[in-house]
Amino acid sequence: KMVVGAPKPGENTLPECTPGKAAILALGKAFPHQLVIQDYLVDGYFKNTNCDDLYLKQKLARL
User: How far apart are CA 44 and CA 50, in angstroms?
Assistant: First the structure.
């Protein structure tokens, strides 16, 4: 059974590209399930990676 408007076998189903600016498809906000407070970010990174390089830790804390 053929559905009206369905592509025929072997027919291109991709939409044609039009030149010009891209359109905005969606706007919105997303909140992650886990929020990391920036004060704990460096300490948490070094804990998770088992790294104890004090120079690198100080450098990341400054950033």
Answer: 10
